[in-house]
From TrEMBL:
Alphabetically ordered keywords of this record: NAD, Oxidoreductase
UniProt name for this protein: 3-hydroxyisobutyrate dehydrogenase family protein
A Pfam family per the record: NAD_binding_11
InterPro entries attached to this UniProt entry: 6-PGluconate_DH-like_C_sf (IPR008927), 6PGD_dom2 (IPR013328), 6PGDH_NADP-bd (IPR006115), HIBADH-like_NADP-bd (IPR029154), HIBADH-related (IPR015815), HIBADH-related_NP60_sf (IPR051265), NAD(P)-bd_dom_sf (IPR036291)
GO molecular function term, any single one: oxidoreductase activity
Record domain 6-phosphogluconate dehydrogenase NADP-binding: where: 4-164
Species name: hydrothermal vent metagenome
Residue span, 3-hydroxyisobutyrate dehydrogenase-like NAD-binding domain: 167-286
Length: 289
């Protein structure tokens, strides 16, 4: 018998997770702070509930995909409507939002107090990968809980990496986003310099994309910059948020991260210029015409 699943947060990513789960034959309940944004999931068979607590009441697995610490804390921990208070004792909570380590640590402790299994499982990938069921899950938590949810995650992903105890998945996700962001900012600077030095933008992006110095992910960014396509798969506002979480944790760990700190300033400048809703490639607009 297939499990009942609740998806908390039906924005760009959560709605696509819900769709893949419905496609796989699961009974899916959803909650979103803005009810209108849950309509696409409801139209294909999801059941909408007015509060997180109501949405998770019959769930075997609860997957959260929310914007930030504030949103996730409100949905999980609100004293009157929070999802954690409505979950069954044998249910499993999966936090797939990109959150700070402090937030994940707090969640882990509270779920443990309630006797509910908790996994931090943020994802690598964006809307196209979510639609294709090809996300990569970076997971922290117990092997037992992972074993229980693996059949569900297999419908959503191309790979699941178990990295250790709670917090390990969240930390790796911040590392992935910070590393990628540094690459994108550096690429934008270089293309801008080449352009102002007389080398055509199309020519430079195409050439660099063929060289081994460019990662596969950055090849995609190069095409977006060349085409001036800044459709927000991973908006600058969220990139900057993730940089902030990573830098705060680095300070607490006593780790020096000067490249990440400088890159964050570039993303902040892009946001101040009004590019916050652009895709991550939009940071290149600081330097590229």
């Amino acid at each position: 018998m297939k499990k009942n699943i609740t998806v908390l947060g039906t924005g760009a990513m959560g709605s696509r997770l819900a769709a893949k789960l419905i496609e796989a034959g699961y009974s899916v309940s959803v909650y979103n702070r803005n009810k209108g944004r849950a309509s696409a999931a409801v139209e294909i068979g999801a059941t909408y509930y007015e509060t997180p607590g109501e949405a998770v009441a019959s769930a075997d697995i609860v997957i959260s995909m929310l914007t930030d610490d504030h949103a996730a804390s409100g949905v999980w921990l609100n004293k009157e409507t929070g999802a954690i208070w409505g979950m069954k004792p044998d249910a499993i909570a999966i936090e797939s939002s990109t959150l700070s380590i402090a937030c994940i640590t707090n969640f882990s402790a509270i779920f443990a107090e309630q006797g509910i299994a908790f996994l931090d499982a943020p994802v690598v990938g964006s809307r196209p990968q979510a639609e294709a069921g090809a996300l990569i899950f970076l997971l922290g938590g117990s092997h037992k809980a992972l074993h229980e949810v693996t059949p569900v995650l297999n419908h959503l992903s191309s790979a699941v990496y178990h990295l250790g105890e709670n917090g390990a998945g969240a930390m790796m996700k911040l590392a992935v986003n910070a590393y990628f962001g540094v690459q994108v900012a550096a690429f934008g600077e270089v293309i801008g310099w080449l352009q102002k030095s007389g080398i055509d933008k199309q020519q430079s992006t195409e050439l660099l994309s063929q060289l081994p110095v460019i990662s596969p992910a950055l090849q995609g960014i190069a095409k977006l910059v060349a085409d001036e396509n800044y459709q927000p798969f991973f908006p600058l506002d969220l990139v900057k948020k993730d940089f902030s979480y990573m830098l705060k944790q680095a300070v607490q760990a006593g780790s020096q991260t000067p490249c990440v700190a400088v890159a964050q300033k570039s993303f902040q400048q892009a946001i101040e210029k009004g590019y916050g809703s652009d895709n991550i490639a939009g940071v290149a607009r600081l330097w590229v015409d």
